Fold these 2 entries.
Entry 1:
Amino acid sequence: MVKFKNVVKAYGNLVAVKNLDLEIPEGELVVLIGPSGCGKTTTLKMVNRLIEPTSGSIFIRDRNVMDLNPVALRREIGYVIQQIGLFPNMTIEQNIDVVPRLLGWPAEKRKRRVYELLEMVGMEPDIYAPRYPNELSGGQQQRIGVLRALAAEPPLILMDEPFGALDPIARESLQDELKSLHSRLNKTTIFVTHDMDEALKLADRVVVMNQGEVVQVATPETLLRKPANDFVASFIGKNRLNGESLQSVVEIMLPDPVTVYPQMGLAEGLALMKRKKVDTVLVVDGERKLVGSVAVETLDRERKRAKTIGEIMDQDPPLATIRSQASAKEAFDLIVGEKLKYLPVVDEKGVLVGLVTRNSMVDALASAVWGDEGE
Amino acid sequence: MLWLLQSGVMRVSEFISFIYSNLDTAAVATYQHLYLSFGSVLLGMLVAIPLGIWLTDKEKLAEKVLAVTGTIQTVPGLAFLGLFLPLLGLGVVPSMTVLFLYSLLPILTNTYTGIKGVSPALVEAGMGMGMSPRQLLFMVKLPLAFPVIIAGIRIASVYIVSWATLAAFVGGGGLGDPILTGIMTADINFILMGAIPAALLALTAGWILGIVERLAIPRGLRG
């Protein structure tokens, strides 16, 4: 689809892109990533000739872009810029149908397309089409920015750090949306970012660049497992959380949590908790299936009334648990998102295999960031 | 004190009856004045707006042109008229030429800075989507620069209306005529007959163009 052949861009003595060779197959979402000044944005902008290469050639479907009229070329390529870049003097509808208007589509076809696109991302067209950009949130605005690039159904889309200016929540949801749009529409997409998480999340293939050169081209999986050199490794981050060192919840859980049986007497339970210095214990049955939990306050309060732990343990609401096949990240998300103090890990039969607590989570994070050498 | 008030009332009523008996003269002078000032501003717009647009991608030249129009602004109006006297003679032509030159600076500066002030991100978005330079100008740059350009026209109009009184010195007519007559005959009535409508015209022009300026702000940019 897109082919770079020995492409060079120099500004005087400064070489921004050095002898770039790269081929992007039809339908692929390629992410260009690297530190600032690595040439990723220059590379992107040479595709639609916002920047002209010093030497070498770029082909789109075997046509050399330098042989094409730049205005006509750009109308065939969707473009999403870093700042949101919606025209404030135009309504959402007018913003989305800029390229169709430039291409001279009839009014009715344009309107149908705008409505179709807005519906595709769940924005009610009758409400949003007549609005102005300043009446929308940043996330909604960039959603329109993406739709605007899709409007004339271009076979190729260029995105220049499109979500960089958004807050983390909006960014996350737009990434999800882009991924789902891409899997539905299969448009060849070149996406520039400096955020490795974003690259790993979105890319079919990641192109890591440094100082104007391509350092590695690989799928996210390969990039994580076999970084080409120290630069890539350090750019990925040593022990990335969703990388292989911390993939499973099993690796971050405490394997042997303090447990009690329902038949156990209260005094015995209390003594155990004091000895182990915990404020809550999990209750398991004879097959070590998780049946409930009990907190030290409950034990203390009910000491006179009840005899066994089975009589006073919390079964309702059922404990939040996580399956042992889950990823470490899912456990983090659950604990942080649901504000849990702890999260028991169970296997498919409901047998307790471990426990993730806020402490074990912090330990795992710390060793991921600083390595294990401190222990 | 009372005497002063009485004489004030006397003067006002005397002035009103004076205007009433010279209504024709006043009307002709006002008409000429409108013609002179708005004709000059219109000419200024026809030259300065396209020039300002053209200069936006010629920064070096733009600096020079803006310096020249800035210098024109500093030449006293009366001196300018005298300068043009041997070239253009007397009458409407030299008057409008001078007023036209004065109207250039604010309109040119505002057109230039208004278009330059359009966010580079929007320009890049427009270009990246395949707008031709012309489409970029009419779809993006001009609509966004419009309020600034109108502001320039308003500033030019307000002071061209008051400076147009100078035209009387070279026989250009307008509300300067009665003022000049008043000065030469030491008749306050004549002076007021020129000065009051001139002031009212300037105020009205400023007011109307102020409204236009607000309406010119694209809806998506209004607070």
Entry 2:
Amino acid sequence: MKHCTMLNRWIFPGLLIAATLVLATPKAAFAQGATDAMVRLLQSGKLPDSRVGTVIGMIAERGNEENLGILFQEATKADGFNPQLKLEALSALKKASESRNLVPAGDLSAISGMISSEDPTLKTLGIELAGLWKVQATADTLAAIALANDQPLKLRRLAIDSLIETGSDQTAATVAKLTDASQPLSIRYVGVAALTNIDIQQAAQAAAEVLASADTSTDPADMIDAFLADTKGPDALAAALKDKMLDGDVAKMCLRQMYSVGRSDASLVDVLSTAAGIDNNPDPLTDEQLQSLVAKVLEKGDPARGEDIFRRKELSCLKCHAISGAGGQIGPDLSPVGATSPVDYVINSILFPEMAVKEAYIMKTIVDYDGKMHQGVVVDENDDRVVLKDANGKELIIPANDIDLEKEGGSLMPKGLANFLTEEEFLDLVRYVAELGKPGPYGIRSEPTIQRWRVLKEVPEGLQGEANPSTGEFESQILGLGEDAWMPVYGKVNGKLPLADLAEIESPILFLQAEIEVVEAGKVAVKMSQTAGVTVWIIDDEFNGSEPIVADVLPGRHKITFRLDKRKLEGDTFRAVVTKPSDSTAQYTVVGGS
Amino acid sequence: MIRPTCTAALLLGLCMSLIHSSSVEAAAKLELKKGDKIVYIGNTLAERMQYFPHFETRLQARFPQLNLTVRDLGWSADELDLRPRSKDFNDHATRLDDHKPDVIMAFFGFNESFAGKEGLAKFESELEKFIDHTKSTKYDGKSPTLVLVSPIPHEDLHSRFLPDGKANNDNIALYTESMKKLADKHNVVFADVYAPMLDPMAGNDDLTINGIHLNDEGYQVFGKVLDEALFGPAPAYKCDLATLYPEVKEKDLQFFYDHRAVNGYYIYGGRKNPFGVVNFPAEFAKLRKMIENRDQRIWKVANGETVPAEIDDSNTGDFTQVETNVNRPVDIFSPEAEAKTFKLPEGYEINLFASEVEFPDLENPVQMAFDSKGRLWVTTMESYPMYLPGTPPDDKVLILEDTDKDGKADKQIVFADGLHVPTGIELGDGGAYVAQQPNLMFLADKDGDDKADERSLILHGFDTADSHHSISAFTWGPGGDLYFQEGTFHHSQVETPYGPERVANAGIFRYEPSTEKLDIFVSYGFANPWGHTFDDWGQNFVADASGGANYFGAAFSGDVVYPQKHGRLKQFLTKQWRPTAGCEIVSSRNFPESAQGNYLLNNCIGFQGILQYKMKDEGSGFHADPVDPLLVSEDTSFRPVDIQFGPDGALYIVDWYNPLVGHMQHSLRDPKRDKHHGRIWRIRYTGNDLVKEPKIADASVPELLDLLKEPEYRTRYRVRRELRSHDGKEVSAALEGWLAELDKNDPNYSHHLLEALWVKQNLDLVDADLLKRVLTDGDFRARAAATRVLCYWRDRVPGALDLLEVQVNDENPRVRLEAIRALSFFDGSDVERAQEIALQSLVHDQDEYLEYTFKETLETLDKRAKKD
């Protein structure tokens, strides 16, 4: 009975804790009791260190105000949690407030200390919690941050939002200063966005002022989002913009933002379309019109031109949709779509995205008691809250008891995309989508081609010369870089990456990166469409582009890095395939995604 | 209309109590007039009346001059205050408002009665509200006559597997009493069928299929009881009841196709545009005229007239012509040409096992199963996507046999035909379990001639708003429980002898045919789960088709309180493609060693073939990484929809072979939807011999037990299924000997013990000693599996919670997870203790799955604690 003694080792501490719990548990009201028992467990010190984080998370997720109050005190007292747990606990408390509208009981003055912290994460959390918990004592500090020109824009936006949440009487004055004509455009947008939380009509007037004098140097996206988030926002802004003259390109930027988050509120679209000089014609197609469009698509549509249109940044297609596994993960991967979807279905899906939506992508619209609108696909739902994923891939948490109205239906896909296209372009785009997945040049590829690339945004001056980086330079300045240093780019259906898409990178040298996920160790090789002026690293094994590129790899996720010297390249596209030499036992996939 | 007077009702009540068991009454209770429309509403008792319309037959025969119209709106597990339907169902002319009844016969109280004495006050208040509402609602300017019908008793079938019904009957009697009291108070016609059914149910013949649902004979008795309770002794009829009965049944069948039309989402629901609005209005106009034609035949036959054998539906109008929206030629390749598009890794070979060329009945095949003789059974769905009014559906269950063992089928038997979109099948218990939306049908072969000779609808209430989301991908669990899945949009509710079970918007069902227990195994926001399989140690994996997600089953199969659903669970592999259909784990000596345990997943659009993943343990759960696909095809009509290892160790693939698969991308009636093709492929590895086919049919119990040592999961799967058909005592005795002779040093010793435990679970032979032995086994996988058995035996193993307390503190995370999962099933006075035990798991290492399952269990227990 060897295993029995072995098991005893484990049962014993468990039973000890059980005894602790039972002794301390009042018999009544056990519903809350489970969480109270977790709090006692936490305070008893009997919990192994490695489990404290988990229990903190569970208490925050389930506990009442008193439970949360204890967590907050533990997190902020001098001899409380270690820095890591402290952050975990405070983040968990933030989530509890967002999900369940709960404010920890007891003294919350420690928030001020957080806001003045040197640690940027703690500072940010402090600012957010101050708003969520309406800690008026922090109003001065929040106002100061909001008006401080040396603070990052993002933090200033958070500070002003939190200041508004606190309900402090300093709010109006602070916001007024931000929207003032003397401020730079980016700050004015922040100010107006904040103002939407106080008075939507005033905000609309202010926005109209700002937009009328705006240029295209700053994207008004966040400010537009703030109006879209308010049920009365789009109409208010549309009314305020009626008599204003807007720069056509500024109007386009506003429109593009609306479309890219899947909104097409008629009044605002009308005003902006007029300003942008776009013909806005949302009439549904008659059957005859549809059939004639189908015929034109088949006659005139050019899938190659259509692919270029699909890849245009301003249409945001790739922001949501992947092709061959590479691209956005918000809508469905479109690689096989033409094989199952006839042309009329494709046309309708682009012009009227809400007509047919696969079950996993049905949109939910929630309006809360503040009149704020939230739209996205439901990713999780329980009695406490709903979690939506919006068109930007961001998760929104809405507490159940905040929900005033909810409606299911429609699509996150923008309705007015075709407004940015000429008829020819529209025909080309439809033709391209309708060809996807059909056998032929737009069929499903079976070669492990690199489709999702990362391109280095800023190539260090020192690495722009003729010479390859040294091993040390490569490891520290390229391989060791974080996600933020890279920008996603995607290959075309045939796997070719147009180098013209990378024109914004001002360097004669480009660094591209791909990832492979290896399940079984073995040899992998890299084959490329051009080799002159190319250097490849499989992890940190360096190869000249013209020599065979083969390396042994172990299981795990690995990077393959490419250095392209534009001065020596011969073609205007680049394509690379990760292959398996015939004697190789390796099992791997090329990593896709966004 | 003459309403029942107080005196009449009183008098009748008096008679009923005087002549307790007799159904013969002196006074009529319900008076009908010419042209009355009678509508049934209520639970499964009413719903099944359309399949056994003995009551209506008597009614029409009794009143041949009245031209009565009867419509059965009965709905599985409906309660007075809980009648969930899929979205927009009411737009399909299904409301009482649409039917404008003169008489409403309401069959409630059975499902409500499970709330017992404590629920009685609530029931009474709901019933009073219902009576008020019904009596005050006017249809065409007048209120209908309400008839309340009591529940029937729960019959004692004297089965060791089933409850004797005493506890239920105490409650049913109580609720019947209540109904009578309120009917009297509100001057409503009341038919007590409880008391008069007690005697016949105590007789020798079984009148129910499971204690609570009447069979054909039961409905004959019931029809007479109800008829006489309402109208007194039967007069001399002008017709022969046996001639009238099929006419009524035919009318009910056509009304079923209207009221319970599958694909409601595309007819009247969220997806009716742009296609459904074109064809369905004419289809249903025609169907409704067909139903009226049948009413008239009923009246004629009831009057003693003869009607032509052939029903004349020439007056019912035409269909709308549907144009295809597929503006390209549709490719249909021959099987040979299709085979040329297949690519497999080195060493694998694929061959055609069967196709529509040799077997023209093999049209749109969907799911397969292998019987104990090694033959392949498959369902076909030429009627897909749904019934076309006037064309009787003729979907089939085929048996395909390879008599000369050359890897190709050479013989076909039609086991059953005339079925309607059978989306799932599994064999066992002397027949086949087949999906017959919205029901589960058991097709029995009593005489062993390979023809279904008895068809029973055994479970009702699986929603059909979208027929391709309805119950599918059937599979047995190791313990003899049958699993099937349904997708989103659906609101299902099923009556069981233990009470109603409900789920909305997708889930997995777990059904024990012997005990008639049905659980919602997983309530989760799937899109459309169409793939579910188990590994050697009873761990299960679920493939959600539409989104391509794959889940580790133990983590989210704890109990929830309806309508709560489990929260979002992480996936055990990174999705490569979608949509998928069917999954299987490699377990065959024919396949290479390196492939054993791999997870295979069919994908049918874009990537068309079989994806393959290497599985590994990861903490309490699993993780899988992609390796080379097992099969890729370039034929865009290749649609692998089911996958399973056969008795020879080769892998069989059902190919639905169809150029058009989108349910919403084309009209459901698109003429280019193919209805006449279908293939079954077979993959084997050439580096190893095929597996010697096990002898399962006609094997003795000891021979069967020895087969449980075979390495192939599917062999053991089919052996356990076969053992279910043997006598429990015999198997139990043989197991004792088999266990005693096992070699303790055998590396598979733990697994053999587990198989023995599962055999006992299959036969519902609770064995606490063997269970405890496996719960403390040296192999964590055995301990985890035994913990799941304990979960399902919890009410019959003494000290179940004490045992779980040990498992929750196990050194292995998967055992702990199974224990935490099991704790979610405890109720009532056990809740507090279950919470305490769950909390103990926190002292041990955590991982994402453990944390998830812990939270889910706590959530359920919290809900129960608050309720109590």
